[in-house]
């Protein structure tokens, strides 16, 4: 479909690409008969686009495939998803306005995204104020404080407290010689939450956190941070974005300091690129490793991804699965709820549900994601993947 532009106040225009239902989105506060209005919004440009480009592609694949199969059936009638893709341009102000316009202006019943907490937080606020008019699916860490509280808000990644337990358990087994850790983290809401959760888990596992330091999001000089850490530290716990991880690893290499890096982020490409300059680099894998898929389903997904978007997968393409299977789970919940209008009933149907897709996904009875993670471990530029248990 041709892109169209939606004016959001006086801030700026957003580029929208309509997909799914032929004819695009259309206006009005009520969904047209036979359609379910969806807004997929994430950063496709700007500094946060690393998190948003792949997730939107995965969501697009899911909605397209469901529509091609006839959509969902409710009350004996078929409904297709009428999807608008919104570039949030890495701007929280745009995220809030986009969500408001999608729900109150275009009548969106479902909001998918965003992946960075800085963008998803204002969207969640709009969804809450809508009084159940819309359901929100997003991968952002900030959604941990909303999920499982009875609102139609669901996080598509495992909560950080459970992730920390699973992740550090693997690190303890794989790195028995690591007894001391220095934590270096972005000083924002997500970084603060990470620093509240992970250091205590390291201590429980027997790894002493000998120093903790934070830095502003705009920091570019990481040498002083590295110099402030103890000389003999065994490993750095870093995060949570790729640009920050690259800068910290490079600063540590230049200072000839620790060569083991436990990354809170979900991509191991930084460690792969560092190669033999470091001893090891680890990351959380919430879905599948595109370069080393572990199942035939995953291999098939990434093959279809490459064909659809005419590009080779890389490690970042794992993010295409942040929403893909959950959208199929959502479609299943809509049919179970027997409604395309009452998103609170759809939310009830999502709670306690599961779906066996490329990745097996689901929510507990409260709507909290309890899916087990995998751990990526890079040594000498080569990555292996270790599965964890719930």
Question: Keyphrases for this structure?
Answer:
alpha/beta, 390 residues, disordered N terminus, Rossmann fold, 2 domains, globular
Mean pLDDT: 89
Biggest beta sheet attributes: 8 strands, mixed
The structure class reads alpha/beta
**Number of discrete helical segments:** 11
Report on this structure.
With 390 residues, this protein is an alpha/beta fold. The chain has helices at 49-68, 92-105, 117-129, 160-174, 189-204, 223-227, 242-254, 269-274, 296-309, 324-337, 343-350, and strands spanning 3-8, 12-20, 35-42, 72-74, 77-87, 110-112, 135-138, 153-155, 180-186, 208-215, 235-239, 260-263, 280-285, 354-356, 360-362, 374-379, 382-387. It folds into two domains: 3-157 and 322-350, 3-Layer(aba) Sandwich (Rossmann fold), CATH 3.40.50.2300; 160-285 and 374-387, Rossmann fold (3-Layer(aba) Sandwich). The strands form three sheets. Strands 1, 2, 3, 4, 5, 6, 7 and 8 form an eight-stranded mixed sheet that branches. The chain is globular. The two termini are 41 Å apart.
């Amino acid at each position: 479909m041709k892109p169209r532009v939606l004016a959001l106040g006086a801030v700026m225009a957003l580029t929208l690409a309509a997909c799914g239902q032929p004819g695009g989105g259309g206006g009005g506060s009520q969904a047209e008969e036979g359609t379910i209005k969806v807004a997929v919004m994430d950063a496709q440009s700007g500094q946060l686009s690393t998190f948003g480009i792949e997730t939107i592609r995965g969501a697009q694949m899911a909605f397209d495939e469901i529509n091609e199969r006839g959509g969902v059936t409710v009350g004996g009638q078929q409904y297709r998803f009428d999807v608008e893709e919104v570039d949030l341009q890495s701007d929280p102000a745009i995220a809030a306005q986009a969500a408001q316009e999608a729900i109150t202006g275009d009548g969106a019943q479902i909001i998918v995204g965003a992946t960075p907490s800085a963008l998803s937080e204002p969207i969640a606020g709009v969804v809450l104020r809508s009084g159940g008019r819309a359901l929100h699916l997003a991968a952002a860490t900030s959604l941990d404080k909303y999920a499982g509280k009875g609102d139609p808000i669901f996080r598509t990644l495992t909560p950080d407290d459970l992730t920390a337990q699973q992740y550090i358990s693997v690190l303890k087994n794989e790195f028995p010689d690591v007894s001391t850790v220095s934590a270096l983290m972005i000083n924002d809401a997500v970084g603060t939450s990470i620093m509240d959760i992970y250091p205590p888990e390291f201590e429980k596992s027997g790894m002493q956190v000998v120093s903790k330091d934070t830095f502003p999001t705009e920091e570019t000089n990481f040498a002083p941070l590295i110099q402030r850490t103890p000389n003999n530290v065994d490993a750095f716990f870093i995060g949570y974005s790729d640009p920050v991880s690259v800068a910290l690893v490079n600063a540590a290499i230049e200072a000839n300091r620790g060569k083991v890096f436990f990354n809170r982020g979900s991509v191991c490409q930084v460690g792969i690129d560092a190669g033999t300059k470091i001893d090891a680099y680890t990351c959380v894998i919430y879905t599948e490793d595109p370069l080393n898929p572990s199942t035939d389903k995953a291999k098939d997904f990434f093959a279809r991804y490459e064909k659809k978007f005419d590009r080779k997968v890389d490690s970042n393409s794992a993010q295409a699965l942040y929403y893909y299977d959950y959208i199929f789970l959502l479609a299943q919940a809509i049919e179970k709820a027997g409604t395309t209008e009452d998103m609170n009933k759809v939310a009830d149907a999502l709670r306690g549900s599961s779906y066996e897709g490329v990745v097996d996904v689901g929510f507990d009875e409260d709507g909290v994601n309890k899916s087990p993670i995998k751990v990526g471990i890079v040594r000498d530029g080569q990555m292996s993947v270790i599965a964890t248990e719930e």
